[in-house]
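fold-stage: in
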Amino acid sequence: MTIYSPGKGWPMIKFDAVHKRFPNGTTAVDNLSLEMPEGGITVLVGSSGCGKTTTLRMINRMVDPTSGIIRVASRDILEADAAELRRGIGYVIQQSGLFPHRTVLDNIATVPLLLGWGRKKARARASELLETVGLTADAGKRYPHQLSGGQQQRVGVARALAADELPLALPLIMTGLRLALIQVVATATIAAYVSFGGLGRYVFDGLAQRDLVQVLGGAVLVAVIAVVLDLALAGLQRALFRHRHHAAH
């Protein structure tokens, strides 16, 4: 996991040798120390399962660290009331729409079962898709909360494809692509700033200098890029639906 944290303020959030080990033996965060300065933007970048979501969830005690200290505004979070702590933190959670009371394999098999597939066939298809999205067979026995945020997203994609019928999966796939596109544009803007500047530098330098005109100018350009790409995907989606409609008649 790579951490980029520009900013000149004092540490608003601080991790000091933080570990998180789950009861099943999985180490999600190992000896993490970092400071997130006030007025800065901190970005956690890494592969699926490297501990990004767990790190964020520990800040407001949705998950407590196994060891180490996390401070928010210089206060050890374990000394604070969890509800009071959360009320003071704005938090946007990662959602994948999975059923929390069902295993990953059963989540993927949901639509085939609703379509009348036999349980054996539905679970076989789910197992096949687990491999397709890069998850192990062991992951199929787990529940959604036992997976990383990125892994949950993969399960969501697998569930959308499980019925193996384009008319059913297409709306979910296209919606997912359009949402992912917005995230990619935003991530690319941040990555450009981290790597070599570009439009991202225009936006973030404006933030650092509190130059509203510069920030809005850069943000509008980013938004235009995202909207144009989204409209292109929306047009492709309508064209595919029209093709499907004509083929059906």
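fold-stage: in (second)
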Amino acid sequence: MYTKLQEACLGAGGDYADLRYEQRRVLTLDWTPGTGVSAAWHYPCGGLYRLLKGGAMGTCSFSAMGDLPRIQRLARTGAAITGPRVRLTAFAQVPPVHDLAAAPDEGADMQPATEEQSRNLARLGTLLCRSPGVTGAALKYQEITVLKHFHNSRGTAIACRQQFYNLSGWLSAEGAGQKLVWPLSLGGNGTLGGEEDWLPWAEEKARLVPGLLRAQSPPSGLFPVVLHPTVADLLIHEGLGHFCEADLLIDDPAALEHVRPGRVRIGSELLTVVDDATLADGPGSYTYDDEGVPGQRTVLVSQGIFTGRLHSLETAAELGESATGNGRAAGPCDSPLPRMSNILLLPGTSSLEAMLASIQNGFLVADGLTAQTVATRFSIEAAYGHVIRNGQILPDLVRGIYLKGSLKTLKHVSQVGNQVHVNRKAICGKNGQFILNSGRGCPYLKVDELWMGGTA
């Protein structure tokens, strides 16, 4: 296989060519209280071939190796039909990599550990259903093992493995005249693991159910808030991370001209944010991105000053900046886009107690659920929160919290916690591509002014 892939790139006849081919093993387990665990396996293969010639690019996705000469011809035809693109002149130059460590025994780790994961899923579901007030639950577990090959015409040849998972589902509950449906999610690199990995998470969900059934909707307005790390990381991911993905800025010339690295303050001086694909055991860590560039650590914001962007080879060439190893594709036939790996807000010096003590009337918001970004504005849905009164957390909960803000919200951050929590909710969507291993990590965060309301 190595020889065929390399020849397809070296004999392409263009200015640049690359080929990514993936063999995947997908294990899917479904659990419900009545039927137990059902299992399914899927072994998809496919890839993407890209050819750059005379400033025009042609691409061809494929589901099997098949006829590589035909794939090349289709890509050349695509480049000829497209013609020279106004903006793209080349892919950024990066040193070639030769790493075929995963190639010799390609199928060795492609067999699923079905029995172990089935037991874990059934145990988790049973524990959740035993919680007071819970009336139903459903869980879906996906474990994906990828053997990835990447070759290009500049001499790069890579074979590497990666494994990641996603656990999703819901639980329903009734009591105190209320009904509740609560989404559940875990994921990232590796596998679900044994009880030591998920039992504390499950016990916390079970413990909160009775309080959530009694909870009321929050008031609407601007409030000082303390954000739990699982909400703070969504603010950093949505409010800043996507803004740093270079393709989004390229499509907005006015913003691109205004936001140059080292030129503008976009947040409080307490904020230093990095994207780190090399984070040990990070949910979004990787050795190479989907363009054969080694993963690396990029400083995006330093003490509130915008310092860097996340690039694919295409955006790096267009802006005349260095590649950052962030060209990521969700599936084997998808084109790489600038995407976050593990986005991290580095710790500050404040304790949670100090943050709470500084608030007379506000909220502690926890358990971020979903979020979205439009240009420089973001919105976040969180599961629940507590009222803070005179520096103390009141026991009663509020639920169904909706937060919204913009890039300017980062200037209202007044305290940053002293310990980073790496979240295990790792899904990120962009342009129809959903990556299951996009990591986020944050400490507690105090925002002096953030709009909050109810989702109902």
